[in-house]
Amino acid sequence: MNGSVKIYLFFLFLIILGLIGFFFIDWDQIIERFSPNATKREKNLWEERIKGLEEKIDTIKKEIEAQRVSVPEERLSKVFGEGWRHPSQIETKENPCEDLEKRILAFFQYLDKQDYITSYNLTEGVHGHLKKLLKMLFENPPVVSGEIESSYILLKNMVHFYRVIGKQNIVLLQEILSKEGDIIESTLDLFYQWIDVDKGCEGERLDINLPLKDLYEYAGFFLNTLGGESYLLRQRSSMRTLIKYYSILILDKANNQNLNRHGIDISHPITSLIDEMETANNLIKKGDYLQRLHDLQLKYQVE
Asked: Is the Cα dihedral 211, 138, 224, 248 positive or negative?
């Protein structure tokens, strides 16, 4: 028998074995596996697995939510006075300006009692000193438009606060932000409510005037200039986010009152801040901020 015949017979033998194996296959098992019922069971199995994963994700989200920053009521009452309530919880039948003035004054009185503040020897206290600083800043605003056209203007903007209020006052403000970091978010909210109630509050005791036209210049500075951005980059993330957030709200108010004299478009800052804030977990009122930003996104039809 020659070699080619042997190869032929070998392959013929393999084919016969394959046919024999074919008849011994468990066709019932194969048909069952690919039947509609089996497919349905497989689908149900995967749905259960997906549901289990979704439940794990929800658990992780709740754990992250629980780890977010919060400030004890005792701490807030110590700083802002007894019976502390968030500004948004003030009932309309009450006088919001009177309550806000009371809380802000309590904040200043609290600061005056702190050892690190007394070392600065502020003759008029933090309240009086802040009024002087605000007057200096409002009388010497930064340049909001035309910055990139002049290296001199850019340099002035980058050292704006240093030029206007000086190194010692910058150190003072930074120390307050550092020592009282846990209540700064609530403090900023109080001050914004102070200018946001109707046409703004004008308490005689507080005597702090925050004109929208002046706040607008600084909102534009932080959102629309390289000098403002350089200052934001030096702040911790939560403070940077809050400054951007309130700058956007101020620019929106300026638009509503036709005070946007620099023609600043806040579309990009809104979108950018939403992306930034969605990943943040160091803000007490993150959900409220995002809701407000999404409302503004719709208002300005930001894509």
From this structure: negative
